[in-house]
Amino acid sequence: MQVYISVDMEGVAGVVHVDQTRRTGHDYAQARKWMTAEANAAIAGAFDAGATAVLVNDSHGDMRNLLLDELDVRAEVISGSLKPQAMVQGISPEFGVALFVGYHAGARSRAGILDHTYYGAVVARCRVGGRDFSETALNAAVCGMLGIPVGLVTGDSTTCAQARELLGDVETVEVKDAITRYAARHLAPAKARERIREAATRAVRRARQGDFKPFLPQAPLELEVEFANSACADAAELVPGSRRQDGVTLGYTAPDAGLLLRVFRAWILLASTTLT
């Protein structure tokens, strides 16, 4: 079985502040090490369970965060941006299961470390079919469209709770218990990596047994995004097919999750041009 791993940073053990997640931040170098180590834990767990190949996608920020010289040599990696499929770039029907490592809670969550959905500076809220959608939900829907289930989500306690509510009996690893947006009670990074490896092993074994189902929200998909301000919505509305619902909210009807993600990403890119 081939295994796909998408790795973000905000949900990694030890991370609680934007200084740790931005290239210009004082603690970014250390956070990169933690992120790479958690990716390695998931890779090792996948191979422990008999994976035949592992593809890792760097899914944070500019998507050039993983320390490639320190990454498990058995895995291949996708890094850099712009990526058409963003956090699930490279996903295809050949994969048997997807693992989401270092993920965070969706925008507007309470007690979720650095909660946001793709780009917090412009996106205040994202809903699909009237339901709040986090990055976990958006990315799982793209995987599900291709028949691929998500078998593991790691991150803070709020992220994991959202994943279980969305995906059902998925493997989760709570590497930290969020207290507020900028504070958490953590596992030691080494302990977090140990648990991620074990959970990744379980997830791949369960996927081989058919324990997981792809996440398939009913089509057509009604995307609704509330932007940070009206200027963001003004710019995003340039995408054909966008519907202006109020001063800061746009809607779009997508036939599948792949197009939905592309429209969402186009909205974000256009909206970001208004930032000063």
TrEMBL record:
Gene3D superfamilies named in the record: Dipeptide transport protein
Residues annotated as transmembrane: none
Alphabetical list of CDD domains matching this protein: DAP_dppA_1
InterPro entries named among the record's database cross-references: DppA_N, Peptidase_M55, Peptidase_M55_sf
Protein name: M55 family metallopeptidase
Originating species: Archangium minus
Pfam family, one: Peptidase_M55
